[in-house]
Design a protein that fits this description.
mainly alpha
Length: 99
């Protein structure tokens, strides 16, 4: 994130369009509950390495277990309330439900 300040505008804009970047920004916007720290599980994991993947998953679950509150970021849901019925038009790639 700090590396964005050293990038050119075009490169910076390309990074800002990535799902992981939006997830971090949206998480920060949501977590205005007086917490000093926010942990977002957006990272690069080498899924080819079963050891690295296993370590990353175990670490992630430790963070969840020890958290005071957890937020779930659903990149394809714009509303504040989770959809309660299928919407084939909005979620056409995932059988009418958010991914």
């Amino acid at each position: 994130m700090t590396g964005l300040t050293k990038m050119g505008e075009g490169e910076r804009n390309e990074v800002r369009e990535r799902c992981g970047y939006r997830k971090i920004i949206k998480s920060c916007e949501q977590a205005k509950d007086g917490y000093e720290w926010l942990w977002v599980d957006t990272c690069c994991i080498d899924k080819q390495s079963s050891t690295e993947l296993s370590e990353a998953i175990n670490s992630m679950y430790r963070w969840y277990r020890n958290a005071q509150v957890c937020y779930a970021y659903l990149n394809d849901v714009d509303e504040k309330v989770f959809p309660v019925k299928r919407d084939e038009d909005k979620f056409d790639k995932s059988n009418g439900w958010p991914e």
